[in-house]
Records
---
Amino acid sequence: MAAEPLVGTAAVARDELSPACSAAPACAPVEGSVRTARKLGGTPAKGLVRVPSAADGAPSVRRRKALVLVALTALVVASFLFSLTLGRYDMDFGQLLALLAAPFSGSAEATDANVFFTIRLPRVLAALVVGAALSGAGCAFQGIFKNPMVSPDLLGASAGACFGAALGILLSFGSLGIEIAAFAAGVAAVLVSYGLSSVIGRRMSGVLVLVLSGLVVGNLFQAFTSAVKFLADPNSQLPEITFWLMGGLSSVREGDLVGLLAAFAVGTVGIMVLRWRLNVMALGDEEALSLGVNVKRTRLAVIACATLLTSASVAVAGMVGWVGLIVPHLARFLVGSDHRALVPASMLLGGAFLMLVDDVCRSVYTTEIPLSILTAILGAPLFVYLICRQRKSL
């Protein structure tokens, strides 16, 4: 099935408008989008805007999307159970079920239970949550900025989190302190980007200035990270910083999951609640305003939730690239551009994807491969393929 263009969400936006918004003229949003596109540079590109049709809300389409979500849920469960059987101490599904029942039955051996519950289970859970968080954040950013090339590190969250972690290692904060520093610096970087855009962008497009501010702040924090690496002890601190920046889940323990799960819960609930507004905002700011959506507040809320997910993920797993960029495109092939289905599909697919990638990282070689190496090897050619396929569909 060919991918629906991102701005094709205009076709499904009307299906979920509030009753007050539904009173607006039926075709005004799409016609307004066409007029806006013409103002910005001639006729709108073919495929970018399409007129709403009855097929968008047809029962058969809804059933197909529901079946896809059920299949992705089954994929996540299967990947989760499969990942739990892999490791230096391989186990079959019978042993796995016995260990999962151990807290109730007490029949498992102490050594096996200790390895499983303190190392393997937290790691697989972290892979699931980080993959889902980065994919959900990437989907939200692509929707809010109406650009399929956007990734979760657009506004500097990843660069800020990397600087915070590097600074924490330099100052010998310890594992928990490093995660807190990374999370705080990631959030701070986005706040700086937002503040900078509000100061210098009063006479320019708010979205454009925000993106440019994010690029500036991201590069600035990358320079700060380089300065920390320059100051670090080359025999101990510098290797630790380097390996942390490559991304990995080998050091995740059960205590690391508390903050990650809390941030994931808050960010996910926020994006899920707001996902229908992403469809409306695909029509353009003027049309969304005319339909009763507060564009500035919605954009700020979505960015806040996506930043929370990104910063928490980078704080635990390090720099994991390509997941938030590629997975939403794959999900779009499966369920289309309607964010009501696209957001949960992206998160389910991202969780399964990162669990399987982590399985490869810890299984194919004697030493563990950093996550970012494998995600780049898989993500770069896949992204080129998606671009070529998208180009053929226009």
---
Amino acid sequence: DETSFVTNYLASLSSLPVRYHADFVPPTWTKSRAASKTPSVPRPKTVEKVKQQGTSRKDAGQQIQVKVKRLKGGQIYTIDMPSSSTVLELKGKLYPLSSVSPANQRLILKGKALHDTKPLYEYDVGDANVIHLVVKSSAQSVDVTSEREDGSRKSSLDKMKSDAFWNSLRAFLGEQFANSDDVERVYNVFKKGSKELVNDE
């Protein structure tokens, strides 16, 4: 049968190796097809990334309650402000509550120091988080010095209220002045000045 013969003949030809002459040049249409590439298609953003970006934009306009705990002393300060506020703005609101200037504040969340220019929502600051306030050493030394000065001043004023102090002062003036009237005059000046000093406090 002719059909079977042709089919078998073509099958036998396809199994034979193809040989080209040394000067063989492939047709141009085969080159263009090989050189063409499938255009790259940009990969779509993952659902998770799109969701995170949407959450960041949404959180940026929210009003949040920020809790700040002072590391030394344990005082807790609560501040309501937009999540788009910067860390520096938070320090400004902390100043009247903690009496620590923004320059001497160091805010830490989850072991990471917060940068002044960053918005709060980038650190996921929210109602469930507590920021720790660390007072820089220079500010602490000023506070300690001020407390010592106040304590020393209070101790001096307490001494001036005791009878023993005034008796000692009268005895001292008696050694310095021969005239008893001069002693009383100077003594009364001291006495009057001490009352004004105590009243000012």
---
Amino acid sequence: MHNWIDTVGFRLNTSDTNQKNNITTRHYFFETFNFIERSNSSEPEKSKFLCFDTYGETMKVRSLLDLQSAFFENLSQLK
């Protein structure tokens, strides 16, 4: 997932780590598309993603395909 994020050119807006439970929250954006990643440093494979559509509604992301679909749907609405 991070390879695709880097390839598209998402920018990391903020990153915050809760030292108590080792949860890192990262906010990424690209143009009008935003999403949040929450990951535990001891189990990075269990990262959770949440993205926002053009109206600010939240959409759960369960896979890279979900994230890509939401991203390209967002881009198509910009025209």
